[in-house]
Every structure is written in C-alpha cells, then in structure tokens.
Amino acid sequence: MMADQFKLLGDKTRLTMLAMLKERALCVCDLVEFLETSQPNVSQHLRKLKDAGLVNEMRKGQWIYYSLNIDDKPYIGTILNHIPSLKEKMINLKNDC
Amino acid sequence: MMADQFKLLGDKTRLTMLAMLKERALCVCDLVEFLETSQPNVSQHLRKLKDAGLVNEMRKGQWIYYSLNIDDKPYIGTILNHIPSLKEKMINLKNDC
DNA sequence: TGATTATATAAGCAAATCATTATATAGTTA
DNA sequence: TAACTATATAATGATTTGCTTATATAATCA
C-alpha cells in the first residue's frame, strides 16, 4: 500500500538514510558514523527499507553495501530530490570502515 | 521538519483524505461518509493536517469545508498526483449532509 | 427558547514505533 | 583455529499513534 511507503519516509533517521543513499551506495558503518546512532538501529531501519523494496544490498567482503532501488517508484525519487543534498557533509565518510 | 510532513502521509486514512481534497473542498461529514469511520476520527486527522499547514478550513453556516493548501509544497502535490483518482467514487457525495 | 445538526475536544486504551542492550552470524586475518 | 570486524537479530521498554466513547461548542431551525 502507498501509505506504507510514506510511513517509511516519515522518520528522520530513515529519510536521512535515503538522502545519503541518493548520493552513493554506502556500507552500514558509514551510515552509523554519519547518523551518530547505534549499529543495530541502522540495521533495523535498513531492514524496513529493504522489506519495502526501497533499497538493495550487496555484500563486498565483510561489508554490506546498500543502494537505492527506486527506479520503479518515480514519486519517491521526486521526494528525495526535494531534500537538501548531503554530499558536502558526506565527504569525510570513508568506505570500508 | 520534512519527515513530519511525510509522517502525515504515512497513514491510509489521511492519505485518502488528501486524495479526496485534491478533487474538491469537502465538509467533515463528506469525509466521514466516504471513509466509513467515526466523525471524531476524521476531525482529529483534519486537525493534524491543519496543524501541519496542509489544509485550510472555511466555515459555511454549520458546515466547515476543508481544502488543500499545498501550493507552497510542490513535492506534496507530486505525491498526490501519483495516487489513483477518487473522482468516480466521490460522485455520490452530497455536500451539506 | 429548546431541539437538532455539524463539528471539535477530551479521556482512555490497544497496537505500533523507535531506540537500547545483549547476543548471534558471517567474513577476515594472524 | 582463534581473535577480530561488520552486520543481523532478539528482547525489552518508553513513547507515539490511531481509534473509540463521551462530552462540549457552535450554528440552525421550529
């Protein structure tokens, strides 16, 4: 249902995660560092996003990279384009923590 | 905050209400009839939408009409345009119940 | 004025939500 | 293999949410 997808966007942490993933694929530890929250918290939000089909995961060694999967959800893309870019603030993030 | 606005869209009842108001201004009793829920429930959802500035109210006699107020929120409009139209199903709604 | 209609507000409750802490799983490295 | 790192899952608890029932407010009508 459509409302369920918006419910996912209605949380500051998840909305920020999606805005980050709009810039590039990220591993869990990148998200943890940037969001300044616990690793389980990030993992649980990621699971919700994955269950809703909004993100994909791809293992790379011991890291798991998450990326946006919204090509079939144009309105989600529109929404994310209205969020101020986080590119600048993400510069310090090093992959493979 | 942006997430708070999406939180409002993340509820089936409210999302339907907004989709209805996209068609035209409606009084509370129209919403109650269409949504098949209680009048206080509708009033409380309307208050949230009003507090967030998504709808306006206008009294007309003993009725209060609510209308969309999203001219300054383009992404909300985009979202509502992706919701299947309710126009057909709203044909039987008589104003001023 | 008193009854009726439309709407709002308050109180209460079950269910959902978000975070935390503890633990499990899986890959890597020494 | 043992220790370490990255991530997931489980258990728990405080807070929020959505709805119901009861009551209040405001406009209309007889």
**Order of strands across the widest beta sheet of chain A?**
1-3-2
Question: Could you tell me the mean pLDDT of chain A?
Answer: 96
- Specify the structural class of chain A: alpha+beta
The CATH class of chain A turns out to be: Mainly Alpha
**Reported CATH architecture of chain A:** Orthogonal Bundle
The biggest beta sheet of chain A reads: 3 strands, antiparallel
The backbone outline of chain A, from C-alpha atoms, is: globular
Rg of chain A is: 13 Å
The string of secondary-structure elements of chain A, in order, is: HHEHHEEH
Give the largest interface pair and sizes.
Answer: A-B, 19 and 19 residues
Number of helix segments of chain A? Answer: 5
User: Roughly how much helix do the residues of chain A carry, as a percent range?
Assistant: 40-55%
What is the CATH T-level topology of chain A? Arc Repressor Mutant, subunit A
CATH homology group of chain A = Winged helix-like DNA-binding domain superfamily/Winged helix DNA-binding domain
Distance from first to last alpha carbon of chain A: 36 Å
* Binned strand content of chain A: 5-15%
Unreliably modeled segments of chain A:
none
Quaternary state, please? homodimer
Describe this structure in words.
2 copies of one chain form a homodimer. Chain A is 51% helix and 14% strand. By secondary structure, the first copy, chain A, is of the alpha+beta class. Chain A has helices spanning 2-9, 12-23, 28-35, 39-51, 74-81; strands at 26-27, 55-60, 63-68. The first copy, chain A, contains 5 helices and 3 strands. In chain A, strands 1-3-2 form a 3-stranded antiparallel β-sheet. The first copy, chain A, has one domain (2-85): Arc Repressor Mutant, subunit A, CATH 1.10.10. In chain A, a hairpin with a 2-residue loop joins strand 2 (55-60) and strand 3 (63-68). The mean pLDDT of chain A is 96. The first copy, chain A, starts with a helix and ends in a 16-residue tail after the last helix. The longest helix of chain A has 13 residues, at 39-51. The structure holds a DNA duplex (30 and 30 nucleotides).
